[in-house]
Amino acid sequence: MKNLLFAAFAVLLPFIALAQNSVTGKVTDNSQNALPGATIKIKHQRTAVLSDVDGNYTLSNLANGTYTIIVSYVGYRAQEKSVVLTGNATLNFTLVQQNFLADEVVVNATRASKNSATTFKNLSKEELAKNNLGQDLPYLLNQTPSVVVTSDAGAGVGYTGMRIRGSDATRINVTLNGIPLNDAESQGSFFINLPDLASSVDNIQIQRGVGTSTNGAGAFGGSLNIQTTTRRDSAYAELNNTYGSYNTWKNTVSVGSGLIDNKFTFDGRLSRIKSDGYVDRASSNLKSFFVSGAYYGKKDILRANVFSGSEKTYQAWNGVSEETLKTDRTHNDFTYDNQTDNYQQDHYQLFYTRNITNQLVANAALHYTYGRGYYEEYKEDQGLTDYGIAPVVLGGVTQETSDLVRRLWLDNDFYGVTYSLNYTPKNNLNFVLGGAYNEYKGRHFDEVVWAQFANYDGSGSIRHRYDDNDAFKTDFNIFGRANYQIDQFALFADLQYRRVYYSYFGIDPNGTPAQQNATLNFFNPKAGVTYNFSDKSNVYASVAVGNKEPNRRDFTDSNINSRPKAEHLTDVEAGYRTQFANVTLGVNGFAMFYKDQLINTGKLNDVGGQTRQNVPDSYRAGIEIDGKWQILEKLSWAATATFSRNKIKNFTEYIYDEDPAALTANVVNSYKNTTIAFSPSIIASSEISYSVLPNANIAFLSKYVGKQYLDNTSAETRTLSSFFVNDVRLSYNTPVAGIKNVGLSLLINNIFSTLYESNGGTYPYLYGGTLDRFNYYYPQATRNFLLSLNVRF
């Protein structure tokens, strides 16, 4: 009852008071031509209106006071004006057209546009900043459609993850300014290696499903297209400091030169994030910096980015067992003092954009990423010969096993070039040619750094290297896309060819460890049509094909005869988008048909490796709703909902007896129409936002995630229960004594202290003919807070 009363209060709070004043006006260009669709908003408030077909706008229900109105329009310089309200006022704006290229052209080739026949969500810097109080980037995307986030440490700092439509990070393509971020071998994206990246992000586009052609690993669940710092004309300095539960700290310093001599800009950021974590010993120590410099000419842009992140994180990878969860939700199996993950990643990016003619724009980028690090772990009672160490004879007793400490290293280089050409011969016709060539070199090696009993090689080194292998991968793609407008119809066709070559240390057909290689060729066609009822309303439909190679483990733990096949996806999307005076709404239906999707079945291949197996037929189908209602000038409600069905038509589970180990399964279970693991049938979010004062805002955020299965058997004894979590966000911003802005933000997460787990796992255990199942979970934090102070000069 208390929870219901609180939620009701949060909804009814906006109706306490209504203001009476309004600001009206018109937005035009230098020639006094109307600019329809211009964005008009009040500074430090999130509500905005658009100018109508004649350029007119109205901001209503404003209390007496001083306001700063900001007007922006694509291709024009934004303009600010202040007004003192004691009654209704008129404020007209004349915008000046920009005579330079905008940074957005760098990512346009891989992005969907307003009329694209695919589903996407755009997030601005301002929208990201609302929740950017120290939690990792996936948590800033939690209110977008079909997204589920999780945290190993339980509070959103450290190792975090996200799924889109049930697809994990290895099937979500991530690019930074068009450059791939996914690891070339594991294919996941690890935002922990770039802590506080969001503070240097200008905007993000999330495409669900296959989406448009992009660079990097094939997109199955979706794509994150991230653009970092863009041009800011005014100099600035900004300090952001956060303190929160579990001794969480975030300190960020950002500076920028503004536009120098109408040609140059420089931006920089330095960040530190520390947290003890909700789970015991799940601490994080994260550091990063970002530096960017740009030259703006009348027809070209040259930008260089250098950024880096380092992390030291105490491992909480094992989760909490089902039995332990009942008595100790914050339990951590690891007790060794230095059971840590240590990694640093340095990024170098150079971009050049040239407006060759009024119809042709060219982009090219060079990039290099250097990563290196290790995780250290304590292992009990290990066979010495497994580590290349001879048994030790002590007092006449041969010691064949030992407790030891090992480090597993990865040292890698990733570099390449991306490019795009955008040709617009007519207003209703556009061509894009793009692509990339990237190379990856990975050096994997493992060391024993301490052992209770050890007889090393006599070199005197404390480190004993027992495993050493290298990998090399090339990824080439080229794509062409055409967009054609015929009356109210917008047509597009998108063709991509991708070639992957992978050399790795694996197992040859004779079972002998040796360097192996594989070459894969993919063709990914896409096509769609959009019908525009008006500038603010359309329907669309598209069909897209995606192909994706297996990951490192799939290759290394198999030979050429048992190697899994590549995954294939046909994605059908159809939807409706509309925008009224105070409502925006998108409804999208999707059907994703997989062939040879890779999943865990427990089956061992012919070399004894438990790699993923291909299942012939599986699918995801559902409907997504994304809308926002500006109920009053100060009150808005944004909500999303996804309803889906995610099925494997035929699934076979294999279980092996571990005493003795055998390559023949002792238990084989067959299933039909089971639900794909970690794929909830319902995902929903809500954000009710109310501006209490011109510079003060309160928001009530809710997230519901339906039941998820831990494996692909649909067994009710192996599930993640559904959860409904609510947060409250308070913010206040105001200029003070010459300081542009002093902002206070308070984010109270899980305000009702709901007990829930957002991730987990399970595996069968068969020993001596007795079958058991071991479930483990990742519990998330109960009520906790983050309090932030922002000072901008």
From TrEMBL:
Residues 1-19 form the signal peptide. The keyword Ligase does not apply. The keyword Lyase does not apply. Residues 306-751 form the TonB-dependent receptor-like beta-barrel domain. Keywords: Cell outer membrane, Ion transport, Iron, Iron transport, Membrane, Receptor, Signal, TonB box, Transmembrane, Transmembrane beta strand, Transport. SUPFAM superfamilies: Carboxypeptidase regulatory domain-like, Porins. One of its GO terms (cellular component) is cell outer membrane. It is found in: Cell outer membrane. Residues 116-222 form the TonB-dependent receptor plug domain. It is a multi-pass membrane protein. InterPro entries: Beta-barrel_TonB, Beta-barrel_TonB_sf, CarboxyPept-like_regulatory, Plug_dom, Plug_dom_sf, TonB-dep_rcpt-like. PROSITE patterns: TONB_DEPENDENT_REC_3 (PS52016). GO terms for molecular function: siderophore uptake transmembrane transporter activity. Belongs to the TonB-dependent receptor family. PANTHER family: FERRICHROME IRON RECEPTOR-RELATED (PTHR32552), FERRICHROME OUTER MEMBRANE TRANSPORTER_PHAGE RECEPTOR (PTHR32552:SF68). This is TonB-dependent receptor. It comes from Pedobacter endophyticus.
